[in-house]
Amino acid sequence: MVHFYDSAKNLAELAQHTLNSALCVARLAQSLQILPLSRQLTNLAGNLWNSSLQNKRAERNEMLLLHEFHKKKFVLPDKENNFAKKRQQRDSAGLDDADEPDQGTTGPRRGKAQYSGGLVLEPKAGLYDDFVIMLDFNSLYPSIIQEHNICFTTVERPNENDIAKIANEAELLAQTQLPDGTTEEGTLPQVLRRLVESRKTVKMAMKSERDPKKLQMLEIRQKAIKLTANSMYGCLGFSNSRFYAKPLAALITAKGREALQTTIAAPGLVVFSSLLIAVCCCYCYCCCC
């Protein structure tokens, strides 16, 4: 950098490089529609625009749920910090400071129930000259939450102290009970249902819109709604989230794996080979007779 100040010519080159860098950032932001998209995300969640620009998805989801529970007159607990969580886990295990496990060691934490994520199988490489069908689930996790009425207020689940003593995922799921059909719809399914219906309305409006600028605005809005709905599951499995609920997250992913496996084994679907199973879709090879 110092040599740029040796002459007026070099200083002009430095100014040009700085201008080019700023223009590249501006063009990239314009191409990705960062400002309008982040503004729509902020309007949906009710958080600070600056947080959306910093891609703080967990904070967006947290603020959205905080607003919803506040409307329903719920009193929510304060966000628990990591130090308090560790102390609670230590107390529930009957350990004092001297007996506390070393936090710097690698491997799974003792007393923590681990749960599986989405179903992902390795693809079968090869040349397929007939048909490859992609079966894509429409918003898999949000659909599962709505279908099974999964919410903090509806699902019977073990508390934090009991979770620390659970050894495996099967035991965790066994102690997590889905609500019956008579249970009132929870807040989380209501939020997702509203988002899904809102996106359908926007997409219907896009079909009849002819103004390119308005069409672009509608596209940004439906994308923001989709991103918000699909990221709601993440706050359940994120340990630093205010709404962290491992039993709910494990239950949702288990239902997702079950849906994918059921699809492959569905009667009437002639599938000779399953090429790839991803989190929310599967690719199937069907032989043409």
From TrEMBL:
Swiss-Prot/TrEMBL GO biological process terms: lagging strand elongation; leading strand elongation; mitotic DNA replication initiation
Gene3D superfamilies attached to this UniProt entry: Helix hairpin bin, Palm domain of DNA polymerase, Ribonuclease H-like superfamily/Ribonuclease H
First-level EC class: transferase
UniProt keyword annotations, A-Z: DNA-directed DNA polymerase, Membrane, Nucleotidyltransferase, Transferase, Transmembrane, Transmembrane helix
Keyword Transferase on entry: yes
TM ranges: 264-286
EC code: 2.7.7.7
GO molecular function: chromatin binding; DNA replication origin binding; DNA-directed DNA polymerase activity; nucleotide binding; single-stranded DNA binding
A single GO cellular-component term on record: alpha DNA polymerase:primase complex
Domain DNA-directed DNA polymerase family B multifunctional: 48-264
Annotated family: Belongs to the DNA polymerase type-B family.
NCBIfam families: pol2
Protein name stated in the entry: DNA-directed DNA polymerase
